[in-house]
Amino acid sequence: MLAPQLAAVFTKLQTLSTSDHASVVSMNIFVALLCACIVIGHLLEENRWMNESITALIIGLFTGFIILLISGGKSSHLLVFSEDLFFIYLLPPIIFNAGFQVKKKQFFRNFMTIMLFGAVGTLISCTVISLGVINFFKEMDIDSLDIGDFLAIGAMFAATDSVCTLQVLSQDETPLLYSLVFGESVVNDATSVVLFNAIQSFDLTNTNPKIALEFFGNFLYLFLASTVLGVVVGLVSAYIIKKLYFGRHSTDREFALMMLMAYLSYIMAELFYLSGILTVFFCGIVMSHYTWHNVTESSRVTTKHAFATLSFVAETFIFLYVGMDALDIEKWKFVNDSPGTSVAVSAVLIGLVMAGRAAFVFPLSFLSNLAKKSASEKISLREQVIIWWAGLMRGAVSMALAYNQFTRAGHTEVRGNAIMITSTISVVLFSTMVFGLMTKPLIRLVLPHPKATSSMLSDQSTPKSLEAPFLGSGQDSFDDSFVGVHRPDSIRALLTTPAHTVHYYWRKFDNAFMRPMFGGRGFVPFVPGSPTERAEHNQPQWHPSKIHASGEKPVRRFMFILQITTFTT
Amino acid sequence: MLAPQLAAVFTKLQTLSTSDHASVVSMNIFVALLCACIVIGHLLEENRWMNESITALIIGLFTGFIILLISGGKSSHLLVFSEDLFFIYLLPPIIFNAGFQVKKKQFFRNFMTIMLFGAVGTLISCTVISLGVINFFKEMDIDSLDIGDFLAIGAMFAATDSVCTLQVLSQDETPLLYSLVFGESVVNDATSVVLFNAIQSFDLTNTNPKIALEFFGNFLYLFLASTVLGVVVGLVSAYIIKKLYFGRHSTDREFALMMLMAYLSYIMAELFYLSGILTVFFCGIVMSHYTWHNVTESSRVTTKHAFATLSFVAETFIFLYVGMDALDIEKWKFVNDSPGTSVAVSAVLIGLVMAGRAAFVFPLSFLSNLAKKSASEKISLREQVIIWWAGLMRGAVSMALAYNQFTRAGHTEVRGNAIMITSTISVVLFSTMVFGLMTKPLIRLVLPHPKATSSMLSDQSTPKSLEAPFLGSGQDSFDDSFVGVHRPDSIRALLTTPAHTVHYYWRKFDNAFMRPMFGGRGFVPFVPGSPTERAEHNQPQWHPSKIHASGEKPVRRFMFILQITTFTT
Question: Where are the transmembrane segments (chains A, B) (predicted)?
Fold first, then answer.
């Protein structure tokens, strides 16, 4: 889907270089603004309303305004936005990092619900929005849009923005909601790829069951093929690092190989016309499960933080740009003739987004709850409200798709198209600012005490937990995967009973075949100087109950405990 | 100097996108080849002849050959080389990392010699090569080159390639040679900027003393301004992180800020028409001296390895590309008419490079030795030979400058230009392969036992030393900088006596003003959970004599020692 965009990136970027020195000035200002976003975002961190993305948006808007004043109302942006810059450079690190640091246990336990939301939910939402748009726009003064455009609008606004979700929901505080909403946003990328292809290639005038079946088959193929590709590339990276770096580790090479192979998985997906987002997400999961445990301690610290930082910079870049781009004068000049229409279109779109999401979150949650036995696993009504709310944001992905659909050669000449672009910007700004600002307080209001079980069940083996890099595989002592026996007396096993069968067989398979082959926690052979060296000795003595949820302070303390244990045994 | 190139990058990259899917295929192959280079480079690491750059060159040549066969002799490269891609994305991380991990003590002790080599030496070499080229080319069958071209050839081939130097000389094994040759290659960037500007703007037909003075003044301004800019940006980053992150550290933000500000220093230098290479190099030095000590332990591990990895990937990228580009058929078709001329030109250039370098290394080493009192600090004749030899390589920088001078709009239409491009490729390939391959064995032959003093004097406070991140500022106990007193009884002070006066006053100034202001080793205020927390307590007990030169194994051992010390006190 993104292949044709590779071509356009260079064409569009060229407009950047109208004046040589001017582009150097632009780059300077942009990089300086990125720095400012980081510093101000840090200062505002304690603030209960703000988050980093909104800070970047506001700084972008403010800068755009100043540039608009200085340039005498001619331009408000420093760089020309290209959806391609976004899809080729900015999106892959964000999604890879999300997969790399997702709590795998939480994600796979809710796998069926996530699939339901991501595939069926997106379809429902798309249908509702498309029908609504067809209905409302006829009454408004908008011409030049055909049925394909309406369906594209549906697909565009049905997709929850994964980047926004990452910013608003906290994996540590509300792990269930995070995995549901974020997982949904990743899966619906595959759905939207199928939808876009369908809209562009199928004959939409006569719909019959065969086309629906073909559509379903396409989705299944795309989903499975993308997942398999991501998993295979991840496993190859684990195997290479495990085999080649035996006893002779090099942090630089390990990090370089992980980074390049993660990116390779993304562009390979593009090569085979699959969903790169889905592929790089699963590649991240596999790398954090196998590859990450095969490398040195310093590689673990480095990869964990470097991937997070790249993702963080890319996110800040996107929001800063979206803010700056919102004031682009060229897009607004068509709207001047009919400001009422633009406002009405934006309002209709926001309303439809809310209705479309409500149309699937509550029914599908009900369905999902039917399949669950224990009350603690069901999605409560309060949580459904949060899921509905937190998924309302539309971000850079919607912007990129809107540019793709409604701009020809970088200009928004047709009036209908211009109105759609400005409306998309309005929806993105409104949803990110208002829905985004309200999410944190809303969670505090609706869910005063997040489920205790959720945080207890949080997976400690992902790179996110800051202790892991220093502890090596020390945590395996409380993870039944290492002992290979399922202990029904442990509190965790009790809580996970409903889901334990699939999980149990996966564990057996993982221990018997996958880990000996690809490494992973506790299955890297003993080599002096290798990451597991110290941890192997400490397993029995070390007790996990003192693990601190997050934060940097505990690292030193645990290192200390570990060392003392080594000393006394 | 590089500002006009920003414009060209997008124009040239556009040729990449002749076919959308083809460019995705190219990217896939290129990233896969990068992975292959890393893996094969690792496997060949023990080999005494090979190094990573030569591996990448050979893989590039091999791939180029295969592509040439497949495409039926039409093309041999996947991506269109652009000097701008090189100057904007690939060079900054390499030079920044070199500054970040350079042994500062060694570098500044030899500062005058480095300046002599980098400025005066480059001028001598440039003059020799220019005169030689004018002399030889007249007899050969080469038209269409004017005096400006000849001087440009001189400047082009007078510059030692900093990227090659990093690959061939080892900072740990031969620190003196490394700092001299690499330092020279950084300083001569400033010289070549001035030379290029001079060649383009001054009236070269009538030279008088005023122009020479103006030239010298220009160089001095450029050198000082670039250095000051790099130092200021580095200090600002140290100050921001020290002030804002007090007691509340965030690794992702710290790393992002360091990365962005380092890049900012480079593009700011371009903004003010300074030498970006010099600026980003000094920014790296300041960041490793101050900023790096203000961040958390995990940030230190992350920045150290992430910067090294980015630099490593960029270097591999360059050499892989140069190898692939060498077989580009378009450049060679002009040469087919007169293969003898091209070979002769290449041979003459290589001969002139060797003569030009000999013309300044030996006389200037003699001058430098006159100023040194102790025998151990003088550059022996054997070392002079190595300095001469190791600086003979011409790499991607020469390629980029050749493209800049001899191609118009990406095509090498004029015969003289085409011959110069192919000759440059030949010189780069020959010098990198032959001189590069021979350097390691030559050092072993000429210098069987590298000076013991050199390795003893190596600066432990740079990020390169792998122990540092885990030790915090523990090493300060043997560093008089922390105690603030110059101890003449220590073995190190004895050895450094000749240079100690400047160093002593710098230390006093650093301790009295700079460190309290900008942080740095041992001067970050005590905050629970901050990087210095543990180290502050350990200083007196910890003895540095057991420090291992390099390698990853000692880390754990020292951590262990440290922890036990904490435990027992």
Answer: 22-44, 56-73, 85-102, 114-138, 219-241, 305-324, 344-364, 385-406, 418-438
- pLDDT range class, residue A220, cuts 50, 70, 90: confident
Q: Once rounded to an integer, what is the mean pLDDT over residues A517-531?
A: 56
Residue B116 near residue B371, CB atoms below 8 Å? no
Tell how far CA B518 is from the center of its chain.
26
**d(CA A528, nearest CA chain B) in Å:** 8
pLDDT at B514: 82
pLDDT in tens, B349-385: 999 999 999 998 899 888 888 877 777 778 888 888 8
CA distance A9 to A87: 10
Q: How much is the average pLDDT of B438-445? A: 81
pLDDT digits (tens, 9 = 90+) for B471-485: 333 333 333 333 333
Q: Which residue has the higher pLDDT, A118 or A22?
A: A118
CB contact under 8 A, A564 and B567: yes
Chain A positions touching B529 (Cβ under 8 A) are 552-553, 556
d(CA B135, CA B153): 13
CA angle, residues B47, B52, B54, in degrees to nearest 5? 90
* DSSP one-letter code for A411: B
The separation between CA A346 and the C-alpha centre of its own chain, rounded to angstroms, equals 25
Tokens describing residue B126 = 């440039």
Q: Name residue B411's beta-bridge partners.
A: B408
Contact in structure between A331 and A418 (CB atoms under 8 Å): yes
Mean pLDDT of A306-325: 86
Burial of A433 (0-12, 13-18, 19+ CB in 10 A): middle
Long-range contacts of B130-137 (CB under 8 A, 24+ apart): B130/B154, B132/B348, B132/B351, B132/B352, B132/B355, B132/B356, B133/B348, B133/B349, B133/B352, B136/B348, B136/B352, B137/B345, B137/B348
Q: Residue B411, SS3?
A: strand
Residue A489: Cβ-neighbour burial (10 angstroms; 0-12, 13-18, 19+) = exposed
High-pLDDT (> 70) share of chain B, %: 66
The shortest C-alpha distance from A553 to chain B (Å) reads 5
Q: How far apart are CA B187 and CA B364, in angstroms?
A: 15
CA proximity to B279, closest of B326, B230, B233 = B230
CB contact under 8 A, B534 and A552: no
Query: What span, in angstroms and rounded, lies between the C-alpha atoms of A406 and A411?
Result: 9
Q: What is the token pair recorded at B231?
A: 């130092």
Residue A547 DSSP label: -
- Using the beta-carbon criterion (under 8 Å), do A38 and B560 form an inter-chain contact? no
Other residues' Cβ atoms within 10 Å of the Cβ of residue B516: 12
Residues of B in contact with A28 (CB under 8 A): 264, 267-268, 271
CA distance B121 to B125: 6
Q: How far is B36 from chain A (nearest CA, A)?
A: 9
Cβ-contact A377, A365 below 8 angstroms: no
The yes-or-no verdict on residue A138 having pLDDT over 80 is no
Lowest-confidence region among A214-218, A273-277, B190-194:
B190-194
pLDDT tens digits, B198-212:
666 665 556 677 777
Among A20, A253, A309, the residue with its CB nearest the CB of B252 is A309
User: Contact at 8 Å (CB) between B198 and B405?
Assistant: no
* B390: Cα within 13 Å, side-chain hemisphere: 31
Give strand ranges (E) for B16-63.
none
DSSP state letters, B414-430: SHHHHHHHHHHHHHHHH
Q: Is the pLDDT of residue A462 over 80?
A: no
Contact A396, A161 (CB under 8 A): yes
Instruction: Give the pLDDT score at B287.
Output: 93
State both tokens at A320: 């800063």
The pLDDT of residue B209 is 75
Per-residue model confidence (pLDDT) at position B230? 94
